[in-house]
Amino acid sequence: MTHQPDQPTRSALTIDGRTLSYLDFGGAGRPLLALHGHLSEGSSFTDLAAALGSDWRVIAPDQRGHGDSDRAEDYARAGYLADLVALLDHLGIDRTVVLGHSLGGINAYHLAAEHPSLVEAFINVDAPVDLPDHGAGPLAFVLNLPYTAAGREDLLAACGPLAPAVGPALRRLPDGSGWRLPFHPQDTVDSETLVHGDHWKQWLATDCPALLIHGLRSQALPTDQALAMAERRPGTTYCALDTDHFVLRADPDGAATALRAFLAGI
Description:
eight-stranded mixed β-sheet; globular; disordered N terminus
């Protein structure tokens, strides 16, 4: 049964003069830190928070450079992790389950590796551990998008096929002079470039319970790599769904079922 949570509370903290915005879906349940991927934001977990019910308090930050959070000087792993540690400290949470999709999944298992005392368990939704650097990545197309436009419709028109996905997330500029994307194109490409490489060390650094949810038609995580990840890391449960990379959007019911089963065992 789907639980209808109260409207999430949007709050923010300041880190080194930069705003980090987050949604707290509330409740007395155990904390679950939910980390979105590139081109997304914390509100993407609204339906999942409802599906998980009152047993889990979903906290979903807009990671640096996304949504309502300020842009950052860099998008290396250390910065992303420092933001998450600061957020958990701000909320008084010293132990949590972490869920992440794509970029968020990489950040999730890196957080477990670097701060194992904070992470009780983690869920990796279709995030690989080996991303060869072949130059421009699949998100390079966003460099053709304007970050701002005078009118909302102008910005939507410039987004082309991406318009239906980003339309609901467009933001007004603070001075009211126009609209902006919920991500900066150059920041997105910089961030994507910095996830390239070999992350096996971090993936294998812990043995806390982990769930790997894999889209069998994923554009990001090949099946042979996903199976190797599950086989090589102790304590890892593997779940395959017949989706592309955007698992939570393509099969929300299947993903929620897998998540509930995994979380019930923690």
